[in-house]
Amino acid sequence: MLRTLAPDGLRFAFGTLTVLPVKVTRWDRDAARGGMLWAPLAGLTVGVLAAGAGLLLLALGAGNLLAAVATAAVPAVLTRGL
Question: Coiled-coil intervals in this record (predicted)?
Answer without folding.
Answer: none
